[in-house]
Amino acid sequence: MRISELNIYPVKSLRGIALEQAELGVRGLAFDRHWMIVDDVGRFVTQRQLPAMAQVSVHLTAERLELHHTDAATLRIELARDDQPSLTAYVWEDRCRALDEGAEAARWLTDVLGGVKGSGLRLVRFPLEEQRAVDARYQRGEGAHTAFADGFPFLITNDASLAAVNATLAQKGLDPVPMSRFRPNVVVAEAEAFAENGWDALHGAGGRFRLGLRKACQRCKITTVDQLSGEIRVPGEPLRTLVEMSAHFGKPGGYFGQNATLLAGAGETLRVGESLTASD
């Protein structure tokens, strides 16, 4: 097997960045979900509430985070800032300390996206020293933590599994969907469809790194959002098809990909095209 894609999403639920290489860290690929948009009480906001978030593109330079939208001037956030006030942010049931990127960022986001349920929007950063633990129920004695991802530092998907989903969509007379609908970090090629559901770990050549696959990823309505336009072109799809295909899990919902943690290899670099092996 090999790595066919590497992606990061510096701002949770905004457009992702495809990379040729990425540094491995305990809480994910470098800068992945390092920022998040929250409402006035600190509750996380995603494409579940605002599909138009997909229209905001993200760029990283050596000095700054840049957000781009066709209706606004570029928003630039310095990476080296350390003077932000802190606030409490909420991701699902987790609460953690976050750094507020300020009034200019809040105005930019609210102007571009329009707020949610009467609330304005703010941009927050995950503090370097903060740790948000991964649910211990899904670990096997190892400790793990993440930044603003839903629950795990890595999401791994399989090109062959997407091909199987698209074949089922074609049988319904529906267009195929790209892998971007599933917002993965690491995409694997040259494996059997849905083989990832039986893997315990993925290993780099020579044991450089090891990723532990710990929980099948239950998908949500974000899979129905076109990640370029921010539009829902076919209501309910491909989520409805995933639910039908995931019946073998024995519980409701649609599943695609595996949530993972880093077992070994912090500081190593992943590269598109490099080989992988799986253990079960």
TrEMBL record:
**All copies of domain MOSC, residue ranges:** 131-279
Q: Name the species this protein comes from.
A: Billgrantia gudaonensis
Gene Ontology terms for molecular function: catalytic activity; molybdenum ion binding; pyridoxal phosphate binding
- Output the InterPro entries linked to this UniProt entry: MoCF_Sase_C (IPR005302), MOCOS_middle (IPR005303)
Q: What name does this protein carry?
A: MOSC domain-containing protein
The UniProt transmembrane annotation reads none
Q: Which domain of life is it from?
A: Bacteria
**One Pfam family hit:** MOSC
